Amino acid sequence: MRKLLLIAMLAGLGLTTTAEARDYPVCLRVYQSYHDWYDECSYDTMAQCRMSASGRSADCMTNPWYTAPQQQPTKKKRKHRRQQ
């Protein structure tokens, strides 16, 4: 039973996509070498990102793939007159 649960959890982790990383407006770019880096786009604010980047070979940037949620237009309520 435990093996089945472990397999299900690992399969769930494999289903994550890069599109999920695009839901945050700020990215942390972590440099591993001069030509090698990766981005962690999981921060809501620059302050959060800067705290994570502190003491590391990393830099914060705005997420170029982020699209802010669009507000739905509000529908105007029509007032109905009562007929007498």
TrEMBL record:
Keyword Signal: yes
Biased composition (Polar residues): 64-73
Basic residues: bias regions: 74-84
This protein's UniProt keywords: Signal
Signal peptide coordinates: 1-21
Stretch list, region Disordered: 61-84
One of the Pfam families matching this protein, by short name: DUF3551
InterPro entries: DUF3551
Keyword field contains Signal: yes
Protein's name in the database: DUF3551 domain-containing protein
Organism: Rhodopseudomonas palustris (strain ATCC BAA-98 / CGA009)
